[in-house]
Structures are given as structure tokens and as C-alpha cells.
Amino acid sequence: MLANEQVIDGRGWRSGALVEQRKLTQWFLHITAYAEDLLLALDELERWPEKVRLMQANWIGRSEGLRMSFDLVGAVPDDAPATLEVSRRGPTRFSA
Q: Which residues contact 70 (CB under 8 A, 6 or more apart)?
């Protein structure tokens, strides 16, 4: 099974084998409901390399959210409301 990003011109990016798209029966988990438990359990996996645990933690992607406010610059009407932006995931706001 490959992700869309792993298929280039209809072939697997590693082997070059022809890729066939199929419908599969699969399960979807509401991972965010278990994020805290999963992150805590990662610390108990002492035999897992730290790099792998970090990748798993990033994949789980627990987020607490962030509130930011921005000052208006330039010609702003006196009756302009204060600007406030609320974002679920702050780090995505500044990503490249």
C-alpha cells in the first residue's frame, strides 16, 4: 500500500513497479480522541529509538491551539475593530 505521494507516473517511487489502485475495506480511528494516551505511552517504549518515537509523536500531532492578536499597521480607520485571529494549530500559521 502506498500513499499518493509515493506514486510517480503510475509507478512506485522506490521499486518502479506499476501501481494498481484498489478499493479496500478499512478502519478509520478518531485519533485525536486518544492523542494524550498515545503520547504518554510513547515514553514507555524504551526499546524504540528516540527518532522513531519523535516521528510517532509528530504524526499523532496533538495540538492545544493558540490565540494570536495582530496590530494593524498603516492607515486604519478610527472605528476599526481590534483584530484577533484564533487558530487551532499555531505552528501551521508560520510554516513555509
A: 83, 85
CA–CA distance, 65 with 41 (Å, rounded to integer): 22
User: Which residue is associated with the grid cell 513497479?
Assistant: 17
Task: Round the CA-based radius of gyration of the chain to a whole number and report it.
Answer: 21
Residue 78 has pLDDT above 70, yes or no: yes
Q: Is the dihedral of CA 11, 15, 5, 2 positive or negative?
A: positive
Q: Which three cell numbers stand for residue 87?
A: 487558530
Closest residue by Cα to residue 87 from 73, 57, 67: 67
| pTM confidence score | 0.41
Q: Does residue 64 contact residue 32 with C-beta atoms inside 8 Å?
A: no
Q: How far apart are CA 69 and CA 84, in angstroms?
A: 5
Task: Write down the pLDDT at residue 63.
Answer: 65
Residue pLDDT, tens place only, 33-62: 888 899 999 989 999 999 999 999 988 877
